[in-house]
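Throughout our pipeline, every protein is held as a single compact record rather than as scattered files. Nothing more is needed to write down the fold, since each code stands for a local backbone conformation. The record that follows is passed on verbatim for readers who wish to inspect the format.
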Amino acid sequence: MPVLTPLLDTVKNVADIRQFDDESLKTLAHEVREELIDAVSQTGGHLGASLGVVELTVALHHVFQSPEDKIIFDVGHQAYPHKILTGRRETLRTIRQENGLSGFTKRSESPHDPFGAGHSSTSISAGLGMATARDLKGEHYHVVSVIGDGAMSAGLAFEALNNAGHQKTRLIVILNDNDMSIAPPTGALSHYLTKLWSGNSYGQFRKTVKSLTQKLPSGIERLAKRVEEYSKGMAVGGTLFEELGFQYFGPVDGHDLDQLLPVLRNLRDGATGPVLLHCVTQKGYGYKPAEESADRF
């Protein structure tokens, strides 16, 4: 019996998603998940990773304007929802079949695939290259690199982080943390502060405070910096990314569109340099067999 997806059925172009209100996006995410489960149950494939990024993918395609904005998925296995939303739904059941859809993102397959991802760890360096080319040409589109916590451990990813931080390139990196490998602060206050920090007001406040503290004696300057870090509740991960030159935001619940949407909008409208958004997700989310045996899906 085919799954019922009345809202998803109206999506003929990725631009349609940008017209939906926030509540409709929640319905869309549910329908994408149902379509994904139905398709992969017929064809086989990597279901768990894709189920874990459904809400994030919906949010990205609502907030950013692909293909003008470049959205780069580090691991092709998490790109199935992206394929559904970018005109490849009708051929999804050919994925990984002869003459069918690629199991990874593929530039020749769609203009919405700006980089041909293989297994892992290349998205930040690819995004940095695109962002650098954009700046050299005087263009203004956004570049978003999505990378998993496992892929983030590779030297290639850290080299790209280091270079982006040094160059102060305007680049958005989204850490898809589905193994809870960086211990997150939790609770409503943390979620509220993340939304607050990603806005323009906090950015201006931070610049002002930084300029003032640089004029203070060194001991007081160090104290002011520590107060700022503790007030943000940074985990070790956040401090690490800040040391590499990135502004760190998060963690946020990667399955909660009420958290994701305002933060992504703030980063789209306010980021002037490299930023990293830490999203905590669960492999196989929304499908109990995949949640309980993520390694098998």
Notes: Residues 180-185, 229-236 have pLDDT under 50 and may be disordered. The first helix runs from residue 14 to 17. The two ends are 22 Å apart (CA to CA). The chain has one domain: 8-296.
